[in-house]
Amino acid sequence: MTRDDLKDYIASHFGDKLTALDTGRYDPLYELKAEHLVEVARALRDDENLKFDFLCNIGAVDTTEHFEAVYNLASTTKRLRLDFKVIMSHDNPEIDSVIDIWPGANWHEREMWELFGINIRNHPNLTRFLLPDEWDQGFPMRKDWDAPDFIRMPEPET
Amino acid sequence: MSKLHTEEFVVNMGPHHPSTHGVCRLMLTMDGERVVKIEPVIGYLHRAIEKMCENRTYVQCIPLMDRFEYVTSMSADMVFSLATEHLAEVEVPERAQYLRVIMLELNRIASHLIFYGVTAMDIGALTPFLYGLREREKIIDLFEMTCGNRLTYNYIRPGGVSKDIPPEFVPQCREVIKLIRSKLIDYEGLLNENPIWLARNKGVGVMPPELGISYGVSGPVLRASGVEYDIRRDDPYCIYDRFDFDVAVRHNGDCYDRYLVRLDEIKQSCRIIEQALDGLPEGEFKVKKINPFTFKPPAGETYARIENSRGEMGCYLVSDGTNKPFRVKLRGGSFNQLQALPYFGTGGLIADVVAIFASIDVILPEVDR
């Protein structure tokens, strides 16, 4: 299946759930409503002609207006690649976990929770792992978090 | 006799344990001599590379990529350059494509030689370490000759490579390939039939293929479980579709097969390099139009992925049309390998955990970023 065949296939079988976006380069990119995430993810994995059994990566993006979670999928048998993104509100970002479908999503979702403050529903283990345990300075990957390249050490008190 | 009452207890391994290849801590729950649960604790090397990239121009990000994966930093440069080229739709010159393939494959061999030495050393054999690093040195010399650096190359850049190779590179590279081919016989002779090596590795840490795929395990670790999946062949990037090579696959999924797959891959990499050296065209080695300061890819997003020596390495890149990336998300193969470790690494002794951890060839900067 070529990229164009894949686009046609998605349009005919998942056209009501996955909306094609024109910002994706190279591989096709779709948008998915948050309430359909688990259902469509399972259908993509189990579809006979797609078999997206391999979750490469989950990347979260803070666009300052809303949060996005981007799922990069691949198929180990059908030589296919596909991305889809789920858009969340900026005030209360929440998303369902896809651990039941791809167990490898576990740490990627934990990272999303830790660095972006996106709440993952039904995640078994939302604990810190990249930041220090006593971290209390908010969510560092958000755009409104100030990231100085160099932090001046405090002057020693005399 | 009634069963004796036993109690589970936790043994802490790391973060400064020599066989954790960096700073990783494994919390092992033990039932007597048996490991019943492994809990990896990571984050000791978190340097916020993804956040730092948002504050730099695209070309300035490349040195950071070297630190993201320092054992095969050519691959890390490559994946970021590839994502940038997807966004900007840059056509890379032929010569640069060939140079990239040569460097990536040389780097893959160097990485597998480190694996060969370090894994054996973890298990208690010191000689392979000396052998593996001796030949790796010759490859590093080639890199030093080309770009001046021995570990963090900063060589593959968006739009091509940073420098052309010197005239003496091609003959010396052929010599190195010949040398590695001949030394592989030594490597195999040292370990393949070694009874201690077999006892420590055969049947240890068997990973079923379904478990590997569902946890996102990739690269040699997945191929050792019989899954024939190689991004170089299945989703070709660069010019890998022009070369003739086999995907190394083994079927038992234990530590020993993971070791054999890597040795097979060294042979295939040698084949690819020879074909690339034969076909190396004359011409430009980078596109002229990319200025490091004013280079602005049009707004868009992409996920680029390549086959690294530790599995799939990916870069999800978002551009908002300025000269700095809006968001960079890096995916290293080790991240998913380490995540899957608790599900196939238990059931043995602590010494087996060392062997399994070495066989999945995790490096921690790639996990923590």
Structure, explained:
The complex is a heterodimer of chains A (158) and B (369). Chain A is of the alpha/beta class and 158 residues long. Chain A has one domain: 2-Layer Sandwich (Beta Polymerase, domain 2). Chain A is 21% helix and 25% strand. Chain A is built from three helices and seven strands; from the N terminus they run αββαββββαβ. In chain A, the strands form two sheets. A five-stranded mixed beta sheet of chain A has the order 1-2-5-4-3, with helices on one face. With 369 residues, chain B is of the alpha+beta class. Chain B has one domain: Cytochrome-c3 Hydrogenase, chain B. Chain B contains 14 helices and eight strands. A three-stranded antiparallel beta sheet of chain B has the order 1-2-3. In chain B, strands 6-7-8 form a three-stranded antiparallel beta sheet. A two-stranded antiparallel ribbon of chain B has the order 4-5. In chain B, a hairpin with a 2-residue loop joins strand 2 and strand 3. In chain B, helix 4 packs antiparallel against helix 5. Chain B is globular. Chain B starts with 8 loop residues before the first strand and ends with a helix. Chains A and B meet through strand 3 and strand 4 of A and helix 1, strand 6, strand 7, strand 8 and helix 12 of B.
